[in-house]
Design brief:
- The structure is a single chain.
- The chain has helices at residues 2-29, 56-75, 80-105, 113-133, 162-183, 189-208, 213-233, 242-259, 266-269, 271-290, 311-316, 327-349; strands at 146-151, 156-161.
- By secondary structure, the chain is mostly helical.
- The chain has a two-stranded antiparallel sheet.
- Helix 3 (80-105) packs parallel to helix 7 (213-233), helix 5 (162-183) runs antiparallel to helix 8 (242-259) and helix 6 (189-208) packs parallel to helix 12.
- The mean pLDDT is 90.
Length: 353
């Protein structure tokens, strides 16, 4: 098992870095440059034209590693890694359509919010039913219409009717995927934040053994692939992952949690994604509630909790202290906090088996 996991990591790392050497110049040649929003930090305008869809590097690398090393497992009936990979690829495909539309129209607008939401919701529901069908979700022994939901740190489970479970799970999936997408706003930020997450998933396989080898291969391969991608995505970024990469990444983060049958671990494991999303929600909500009350002469003005949402832009623009965080500092902060909570999450589930 150890050799397989190390090999998955190595394949992901080498392929991702290597593919980038060909993909980045190709994206430049076809002028697949990212448009920068006018409402963003002014200094981000210098990144206008930086190639996007760079997430294809770690997507392709992970896919090759998982298919090559996971094939023997599929022959024994273990399809868990295939389900996670396919699910992530579909979300990556949705992101690719979004990126393609942005490039075609030469603006930072792709698929409509409604189109993306409906596509993501449909895929999420199908994925949960697939896990249920193949026995990857723990069905309550007393009543098969209920699914046992594992609670980390308390090491207990509680039953939830499968219909309610599917509804809640679908919205958790869509929310998590878009939270990861929100985090992708600074060079290397989503990449660095996600590496500890997949190291956590990799560590679980080492700790719990061969029963989760398929998922371990996927997690290890993607960890290596993300490290390889950092060669191109670290500040100053030579390429952005785009929605192609961020939606694949978000899909992988949440799919692994459900495939390990412990979605509640996302509360601690995905802390930085949650902070990013909450900052956005708080900003919009408070602004709408106070609109027209801040300045009676200007009904369009409202109170802003953050200088700009999501949270990384707030820090980047001076936060509450006036100190403007540099992109490399944000990368270090988010990666460190993510790693800290990954360790905490591991302690929270270590007594499960």
């Amino acid at each position: 098992m150890t050799q397989t996991m190390i090999l998955a990591f190595a394949i992901g790392l080498v392929l991702s870095a290597g593919i980038g050497a060909f993909l980045v110049p190709f994206l430049r040649r076809i002028k697949a440059g990212q448009s920068i929003k006018e409402i963003g930090p002014t200094w981000h305008k210098s990144k206008e034209g930086t190639p996007t869809m760079g997430g294809l590097t770690f997507i392709l690398a992970t896919t090759v590693a998982v298919l090559a090393l996971g094939w023997p497992l599929t022959r024994t009936g273990d399809w868990s890694h295939c389900f996670v990979l396919i699910f992530s690829l579909i979300y990556g495909g949705i992101g690719f359509l979004d990126d393609f539309e942005k490039l075609r129209h030469k603006q930072n607008l792709g698929l409509t919010a409604k189109q993306k939401f409906l596509l993501q919701l449909a895929v999420a529901v199908a994925f949960i039913y697939l896990l249920r069908l193949f026995g990857l979700l723990h069905v309550n022994t007393a009543d098969h219409h209920y699914i046992d939901v594992y609670v980390p740190f308390w090491n207990r489970s509680f039953p939830l009717h499968e219909i309610i479970y599917v509804i809640c799970a679908a919205f958790v999936i869509v929310g998590t995927v878009n939270a990861v997408n929100l985090t992708d706003g600074v060079d290397g930020l989503a990449t660095g934040t996600s590496i500890p997450v997949f190291l956590f998933y990799t560590a679980l396989c080492f700790y719990w053994g061969n029963r989760y080898l398929g998922l371990g291969i996927f997690a290890s391969a993607l960890t290596g692939a993300l490290l390889g991608f950092l060669a191109w995505n670290f500040n100053p970024a030579k390429v952005f992952m785009g929605d192609t990469g961020s939606l694949f990444l978000g899909g992988a983060v949440v799919a692994m949690a459900f495939a390990y049958d412990m979605p509640l671990i996302l509360v601690t494991l995905g802390i930085m994604y949650i902070i990013e999303t909450l900052s956005d929600i708080i900003q919009v909500t408070v602004f709408k509630l106070t609109k027209g009350r801040v300045d009676k002469n200007d009904p369009t003005k409202g109170f802003r909790v953050f200088r700009m949402a999501p949270f990384h832009h707030h820090l980047e623009m001076g936060g509450w202290t006036g100190r403007k965080w540099k992109e490399k500092e944000l990368f270090a902060l988010f990666t460190f906090v993510s790693a800290l909570f990954a360790v905490l999450s591991f302690l929270g589930v270590s007594a499960r088996f």
